[in-house]
Amino acid sequence: MNKIILISPFQAIGVFKQLGFETLISANKEIIETYIHKNALKTKVIVYDISLKEIINPLKEQFKTSEFPIFMALAFNENQKLESLNEMHRQIENAVGVKIE
Hints:
alpha/beta; Rossmann fold; 4 helices; 4 strands
């Protein structure tokens, strides 16, 4: 079972592949959907670039009642750090039911 998969349109995540993580470098909706459906049942966490949220959000809904995979949005681009932090707060609040201020 893959513990963590990283998906981003940026080549920068290639460093994670060198560290032994499973990675997908793509912004293509069909490729990402196929990849997630193929790997979801054998993956614990899918970390995706925040810029892919329009593609990933419908997929997250399909796995909403499953224990795994857990989807986590991160910024792999310097300009998206604040958006990524806000998304992480929202995800944590939804998971634990406590508002983070």
